[in-house]
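In response to the reviewer comment on reproducibility (Comment 2.3), we provide here a single inverse folding case reported in full, input and output, so that an independent group could reproduce the run without further information from us. The structure tokens appear first.
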């Protein structure tokens, strides 16, 4: 005869079973380690700052630096262009986002590799379309002066990624840095009248690379992601088995762009090509388990892309 359990024990067992049934599959194991000590020994130049999120890529010290935010109306003219408004709102609502305004973060990535200080994109600077310009203070809080940056890797030449290259006087903010961007992107930047001053300021230090090139052997490799701009690049950063994929503008919104990669966003120069590239990059990230760094996802924009219910979802690192 089976023993009679107290009601409290039966309730506990039922609750445990229910929670187990509802649990979602865990994302792939992280390749980015827990936050390390500050980039240098704590001193007056290296301080706690809400706009600096430190972590490791293997043995490489890294930090996401928050530059600011971009907000625009959810009116179907920018995000999810041509998609049914009700479906767009449903994706946003399920992700806990408002349905009247779209919010994108603006972030850059800082990495130390030996005696080199690497910066991936430079934020929006003083651009009037964004509430931004916090990169200089965040960089200082991370213990780095602009003159110490040795390499800047530009994903593409949109102003929220190159706006921080110049200081308030119009001079190069990072005077000793080589500016790496793909040859097609550099050619397009030079023909854009709006970027004439920028092109002139950085020209002496530009490295216009072949798309997909290995830029720092064993550390940084460019990844072609066509369609957004003429030479848009993501970057893979490696240290041994640890890898991080900085995706630039391959995906803009953590819910809409990831769950509906075939929906158009107005920022893409060649939307059909960009949509195909976006889906391919998301599949690559999901299938390899690489940790992703996105400059526009909610700060600090680190996580994994996982397959779920026939599409992809964003699983931020906790």
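Designed residues, in position order:
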């Amino acid at each position: 005869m089976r023993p009679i359990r107290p009601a409290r024990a039966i309730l506990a067992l039922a609750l445990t079973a229910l929670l187990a049934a509802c649990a979602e599959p865990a994302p792939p194991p992280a390749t980015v380690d827990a936050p390390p000590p500050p980039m240098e020994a704590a001193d007056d130049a290296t301080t706690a700052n809400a706009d600096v999120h430190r972590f490791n890529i293997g043995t490489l010290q890294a930090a996401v630096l928050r530059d600011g935010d971009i907000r625009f109306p959810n009116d179907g003219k920018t995000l999810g262009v041509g998609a049914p408004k009700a479906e767009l709102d449903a994706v946003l609502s399920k992700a806990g986002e408002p349905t009247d305004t779209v919010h994108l973060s603006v972030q850059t990535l800082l990495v130390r590799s030996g005696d080199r200080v690497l910066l991936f994109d430079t934020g929006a600077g003083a651009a009037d379309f964004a509430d931004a310009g916090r990169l200089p203070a965040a960089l200082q809080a991370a213990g780095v002066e602009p003159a110490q940056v040795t390499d800047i890797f530009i994903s593409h030449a949109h102003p929220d990624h190159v706006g921080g290259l110049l200081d308030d006087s119009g001079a190069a903010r990072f005077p000793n840095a080589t500016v790496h961007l793909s040859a097609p992107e550099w050619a397009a930047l030079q023909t854009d009248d709006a970027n004439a001053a920028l092109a002139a300021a950085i020209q002496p230090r530009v490295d216009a690379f072949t798309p997909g090139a290995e830029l720092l052997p064993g550390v940084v490799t460019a990844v072609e992601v066509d369609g957004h701009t003429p030479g848009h690049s993501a970057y893979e950063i490696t240290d041994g088995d640890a890898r991080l994929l900085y995706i630039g503008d391959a995906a803009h919104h953590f819910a809409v762009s990831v769950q509906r990669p075939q929906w158009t966003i107005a920022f893409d120069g060649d939307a059909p090509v960009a949509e195909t590239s976006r889906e391919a990059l998301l599949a690559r990230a999901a299938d390899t388990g690489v940790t992703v760094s996105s400059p526009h996802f909610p700060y600090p924009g680190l996580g994994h892309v996982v397959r779920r219910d026939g599409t992809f979802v964003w699983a931020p690192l906790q």
